[in-house]
Here is the input.
Amino acid sequence: MKEKLKVALAQFPCKIGNKQHNINKIVKHTKQAKKQKTDIIIFPEMSLTGYTLLDLTYELAEETPGPSTEKITKLAQKENIYIVFGMPERSEKGKAILYNTAVLTGPEGYIGKYRKMHLPTHSVFEEKRYFRLGYQTPIFETNLGKLGITICYDIFFPEITRTLRLQGAKFIICISASPAVRKQFFETLTAARAIENTCFLAYVNLVGIENGLQFWGGSRLIGPNGHIITQSKYDKEDLSFGNVDYDDLRPVEAFVPTLRDLRPELYISLKEFSEKL
Amino acid sequence: MKLTSKLLQIDPKPTQRKIISFIKDYVDKTKAKGIVLGVSGGVDSAATAALSTIALGRKKVLALYMPEKETYKKADHKIVKLLADQFRFNLKHVDLTNTLKTLYNTIPDYSPENKLSRGNLKARTRMLIWYYYANNQNLIVAGSSDKSETMIGYYTKWGDAAADIAPIMDLYKTQVRQLALHLNIPPTIVKKPSTPALWPNQTAEKEIGLKYEKLDLILYGLEHFMGTKEIAKQLNLTIKTVTTIKKRWLQTEHKRKMPLTTKLEYRTVNADFRFARTTEIEQE
Here is the structure.
């Protein structure tokens, strides 16, 4: 397993509903990242199709793995790189059973997927209208270590990153489609999730304008002490690079030993009280 | 939440940047050649014209000044010319006096004493001309409605608010004024009393019965789910005043929506057909 990783954060404006255009963008950025000897490249939430699909979700969702995943897996194998991207997934069990999904694929082929657990259905968001909630928090054992993935609004719920970290993921990825007025929330919460779990966290956000929503980009790689390792441009297409060195975890874990100091009994009352909300 | 004017303060630089990106993105995605809009000499249309020009360049913005004899003011005409000189967008003067006369004479039951329906004809006639140019020159119609007037329905249905995009519709009037000053729009325009120009000497604040500084705070409170009693107490207004504004807001929802139909079939236009404005699906 590699102890030092080079990470690429790729944010680009999607064409709504135009998978081929968006895949071309994924190919372009991946090739560029590979020239920089990158180990893993991460794309935003729903980067295969664009975020604001509304009713197009039904026709654009695919099984995962499926045709688009296969295309991107071939790219990952050819370029010998890990790729994370977002897409609408259709369950093989039903035409209208859809998920907001992140896919991890790499040199060894298709690796796995994470289905978004918290679907925003408030303000301008309508995700529960189209998607089913995800129920699993898988971690993925790769040559880059154990990786955990979350999607956008999940970051507001510390349980997810905590669960992934407790399963051994030291590098957690959050792909996102966050419009402008929420920037402050995400910048605060992504740093908090990294600090409270003493882990590396890569946040990759969409850019561009979809249906009046302006996605702000600002993707970032954050160290376990909350330090911003790399920060992408706001509002513009960008490809930025940063390094993860797992050796850097040790001094932080000793300095703020949050995992050592966990109190499991609190989780029992947390469950009880949240059920009675 | 304490309702003070501080809540309505905007950071004009990022606001300008976002609106400009929005205009440019929409024109690009629709493959239009530019923007057409009406200019009256008021702050809303001045700001929309300025923002469109900054977004697209002066050659891609066509502003139509459309006076008519009854409400014509030389001062407005001067202001519009001043604005066009400053931002250097294309300006056309379309006098609607004769068109309106013809319309009045054409309608069998035309009643000149009904100020509102007569005034609304003017707003809708202006809209006809914008869309003529939009069709003829492949332009996008930019509306100049602000959030204050849109929320209380203070506009003519299918008239002055009829547009393809409304760049400043998420800004209250007092916020548009801040943005306008940042855009270097002359203070005389920014401070000028707003009017829909439907009849002589009509001013918005007189008709609404409140200064925009107060109206905007009422609307801000309603936007943030505050109760009418609390808003009235904080702003030192009667509950009746705030309730009247709330009613105007809720009762004019029909103006802000497509026509209502009754559901008869599987998927219904404007109910459960839901798509983004600019999808770019692949050709099959």
Q: What stands out?
A: Chain A has one domain: 4-275.
